[in-house]
Amino acid sequence: MLRIWESQREKFESEKIPLTKWRFYPILPVVFYTGDQKWDKPFDIKQLFDLPKSLEEFIPQHKTILFNLKATSPERLVEYNHPFGWILRLMQKENAGTDEVRDSIQSGVNHLKLMTPEEQANWAKLIYFMMAFIYERRDESEHDEFLSIIKSSIEDKTGRKEAEEMGKTMSQVLQERGEAIGEARGIEKGIEKGKIETKQDAIIKLMRLKFESVPEILVKNVKSINQVNQLDVIFERAVIAKTINDVEIE
Question: Which site from 166, 190, 206, 235 is most exposed, i.e. has the minimal number of CB atoms within 10 Å?
Answer without folding.
Answer: 190
